[in-house]
Amino acid sequence: MNICVFLSAADLDDRYTVPAREFAELLGRGGHTLVWGGSDKGLMKVVADGVQATGGRLVGVSVEFLAASARPNADEIVIARDLAERKALLLEKADAVVIMVGGTGTLDEATEILELKKHGKHTKPVVLLNTAGFYDGLRQQFQRMEDEGFLPLPLTDLVFFAKDGVGALAYLEETAGLQ
């Protein structure tokens, strides 16, 4: 399965890197392909290293202004013109999406993917990997959106919140075939 992972390129502490590495190793051992932003920095590097070290493939989609940070030994690297094209290519190459910890770029990617799913532009499973409770506030906000009528379908049809990589991968393997 081609699993798109949106995540930070920042250098982060062990509470984020250790679970990210564990998830990456699960992907690689499972024979999955990581589809990611292509960066060889920070958490993106940690995940790419883990997938590659355990036998998985790497498909990166970088963007022109970040191309200098692209991973040199990925199985495939595509350079998009801009962030909008990058997001479209990442989604196109993926069978499923996992959103890990990140900043404004990751949040932008997450909300766009969910908005497209809400409007029926894709039916791919989407998981928010809630490492160390990072997305607790976002989950609360999404629940409020659902409760107050802002979502046209149940939140559970849009996104699955996983507390760890094992739960995330189990959900993807169970649902990806139902698309």
Word description of this protein:
The protein is of the alpha/beta class and 179 residues long. It is built from 7 helices and 7 strands, in the order βαβαββαβαβααβα. It has helices at residues 14-29, 42-53, 83-93, 104-118, 136-147, 155-158, 165-175; strands at 2-6, 33-36, 57-63, 76-80, 96-99, 126-129, 160-162. The chain has a 7-stranded parallel β-sheet with strand order 4-3-2-1-5-6-7, sandwiched between helices. Helix 4 (104-118) links the parallel strand 5 (96-99) and strand 6.
Strand portion = 15-25%
- Major sheet size, sense and barrel closure: 7 strands, parallel
| Number of helical segments with 4 or more residues | 7
Structural class: alpha/beta
Helix content: 40-55%
* First-residue to last-residue Cα separation: 13 Å
Rg, alpha carbons = 15 Å
Major beta sheet, strand line-up: 4-3-2-1-5-6-7
Which regions are unreliable across 5 or more consecutive residues at pLDDT < 50?
none
Q: Mean pLDDT, as a whole number?
A: 95
Anisotropy-based shape = globular
The number of distinct β-strands equals 7
Order of helices and strands: EHEHEEHEHEHHEH
